[in-house]
Amino acid sequence: MQGHYDVVIVGGAVIGSAVAYYLMADPDFDGKVLIVERDPSFAFASTSLSAASIRTQFSNAINVQISQYGAQVIRDFADLMAVGDQRPDLCFQPGGYLFLAASEAQAETLRANHQVQRDCGADVVLWSPDQLARAFPHLRVDDVALASYGQSGEGWFDNSGLMNGFRAKARALGADFVADEVTGITRQGGVVTGVTLRSAGQIAAGTVVNAAGPRAAQVAQMAGLTIPVQPRKRSVFVFDCANSPQGSAAVNEGRLPLMIDPSGVYVRPEGRCFLTGCPPQDDPAVDYDDFAPRHQEFEDIIWPVLAERSPAFEAIKLVSMWAGHYAYNTLDHNLIVGRHPEVANFIFANGFSGHGLQQAPATGRGVSELIAHGGYRTLDLAPLGVERVLENRPFLERSVI
After folding, report:
1. pTM, entire model
2. Of 135, 141, 140, residue with least CA distance to 96
3. Domains along the chain?
4. Do 349 and 329 meet the contact criterion of CB atoms below 8 Å apart?
5. Which of 16, 62, 88, 355 might form a disulfide with 11, Cβ 3.0–4.6 angstroms?
6. Buried b / exposed e across 38-75, counting CB within 10 Å, b at 16+?
């Protein structure tokens, strides 16, 4: 494979596929797009191993707005991504998110976040312990100071379905995909001129988009650039429950939400079972190929917390587990998107820190606007640009799970 592409996207999971779709769907863009994906099975992609949820309960307005747009795309996905008679159904489950605060400091954080969310029009309410107990009677609330609940626009969905829908539609619109690995990026001064593929050799490129997930730093380094993104392991566990509380809620047609305990342990329904995880106590960067789950997190951290929070979770049985990688932005846990000021045709779409699926639609749209129109036309993502990284100026997100 040789030749020239106007845009080469390194990484074909949900972010790369979203960028390709939005470019190909833009009537003002008439260029050629190539996505290069090293593992077309996506077996170890962050997309495939994600808990696949979306929320508006963030601490800064940009992240709220990004997810509001993501929710809109998820709602309309079957129509937007229809190819022939194929209409992808993401099986969205509108369970909402429920954040619990135990201390006054945690409660104050929820209040501050709530003001940001409400200013953006998010459908989020704050509840006292009594209100929380009435809504979800299975919970013990003695230690709860405040709760924050998303009444709509939040839930979970088919992760691979989102990626596959973007990819199939982009291909139908004319984007090319190749199963290969980028081993080098050529650069002349402040301009990237192409990529080298392990199997196919040199490809000339007008623009290169880094959508390489946890491997983003490797790809940036090929262009002589740096980015503070590391692979951080997150283990996910699925358990069965002898006396399931699902259906017991007094709100949202009985559905239980994705609940985040004050300890950081989270849990949500997954079919007839439940899915859970927690922030690791020790969180080092891991090898790119290390996907061994940390089983002790379930035994030592998660189960005791869940059993204390609800009698229903005292008798549970582990069914399965896996581990995936966050593309973790060590500066401020927020995505890094946009052109590099020294290499204007190298564009970042990295560092999502666990939020890539829900932020893929807005990121894909934003990157396509930069390429096709020279600037953002819808949501201004400039505060999330690489400039803040170069200036060591964090744009903090306090609500990271």
Report:
1. 0.97
2. 135
3. 4-69+159-229+331-390 (3.50.50.60), 93-152+231-324 (3.30.9.10)
4. no
5. 16
6. beeebebbbbbbbbbbbbbbbbbebbbbbbbbbbebbe
2 pLDDT band (50/70/90 cuts)? Answer: low
Residue 116 has φ and ψ, to the nearest 5°, of -60, -45
Which residue, 189, 187, 224, is CA-closest to 207? Answer: 187
pLDDT digits over 248-289, tens only?
999 999 999 999 999 999 999 999 999 999 999 999 999 999
3-state secondary structure the chain: CCCEEEEEEECCCHHHHHHHHHHHHCCCCCCCEEEEECCCCCCCCCCCCCCCEECCCCCCHHHHHHHHHHHHHHHCHHHHCCECCECCCCCCECCCEEEEECCHHHHHHHHHHHHHHHHCCCCEEEECHHHHHHHCCCCCCCCCCEEEEECCCCEECCHHHHHHHHHHHHHHCCCEEEECCEEEEEEECCEEEEEEECCCEEEEEEEEEECCHHHHHHHHHHCCCCCCEEEEEEEEEEEEECCCCCCCCCCHHHCCCEEECCCCCEEEEECCEEEEECCCCCCCECCCCCCCCCHHHHHHHHHHHHHHHCHHHCCEEEEEEEEEEEEEECCCCCCEEEEECCEEEEEEEECCCCCHHHHHHHHHHHHHHHHHHCCCCCCCCHHHCCHHHHCCCCCCCCCCC
Report the alpha-carbon distance of residue 370 to residue 352 in Å, rounded.
Answer: 19
One-letter amino acid at 47 equals: T
Enumerate residues 6+ apart whose C-beta is below 8 A from 23.
Answer: 7, 29, 31, 33, 170, 175, 368, 371, 372
Place of tokens 């740096």: 226
Phi and psi, residue 349, nearest 5°: -145, 75
pLDDT digits (tens, 9 = 90+) for 168-186: 999 999 999 999 999 999 9
Give the integer Cα–Cα distance in Å for 335 and 369.
Answer: 17
CA 220 to chain centre: 20
Predicted local confidence at residue 3, as pLDDT: 86
CA proximity to 395, closest of 330, 327, 326, 333: 333
Q: How confident is the model at residue 398 (pLDDT cuts 50, 70, 90)?
A: confident
Sign of the CA dihedral running 123, 127, 131, 137: positive
